[in-house]
Protein: SFRICE_034126
Organism: Spodoptera frugiperda
Amino acid sequence: ATEVVNGVPVISDLTSTVATVTITIKDVNDEPPRFNRREYSVEIPESLPVGTPLPNLDMVVTDTDVGLNSVFTLRLSDEMGAFIVEPATATGSASVTLRLNSSLDYEDPNQRKFILEVIAEELHTSPRLSSKASVTVSLTDVNDNAPQFAEEPYSATLAEAALPGTRVGAIRATDRDTGRFGTEGIVYELSGNGAELFRVDNRSGVITVAPCDTPGLAPCLDYETRKDYFLQYKATDDDGAGQNTVVSLQISLSDSNDNPPVFHTAVYKASIDEDAVKFEPELQVQARDVDISSDIRYSIIEPPTHPFWIDPINGKISVRPDTGGVTPPEDSNKIFLTVL
């Protein structure tokens, strides 16, 4: 304040004085807590451990008011409860973290994408100002499932004389994962003793007979050499580089009539008196056929006429009752029979 003398302000220690006036501006709650962005998006693998923060979220909430007006809470709108938000309360500004609260499974269609809402709301004001931000969490598939077969073990039956390329069967697996980690990325493989006699299409799972020069005879498929093949059939995902499952496969051969009967000896000899009606000891020819499906029958085909009869089942040769005995040829005392 200054005295005025003759209309003129006179400033001096005797005519002037100074006072200090302090004006306090009271904060008005006119700013809600604000997010640094309105929308966020992150991508996480389905194998992310529970409790892990979502990566690369970069979420910050700021309330420019002061004092109690700048205190706010954070909460999450998440129906499944798969995530939690931190911190629960903050003052002025806070970096926000979302953590995984439960394990996730990409194979569940309801868990491949989450749209969350983070809400920041003032705590001590009236009205409580607030703001929201959306967070889209996308799940990526991880190769966490092995191929699965519908049954185990598998079996198939095949004729021993089957030609190369003959279809034995088709065995396919499924995989709950997607892409190359799933069914479309499965590669099949056949192994075990004798597996080289078969071929498997590594994508379709179709098993066929492998090329071989002598079908039905060793070293190709031959029932008389080997009747059963016990093999391992493997399915591996990720184009053959991932998880695998092995099942057993039994391929059994059925016999084909591909071998002629063979007599125990090529020449049989016997003696009989000309008036006798049977051989002493009995005369019996026998043949063996390695094919179990064969049914051997015997018959005398040479000479056209003779006094003998052969049992077609057991090969026993005897004198026909109607001949009254054996009469040798005029020029010899021997009769040569050809038995088929």
Notes: The chain has a mean pLDDT of 89. The CA atoms of residues 278 and 318 lie 5 Å apart.
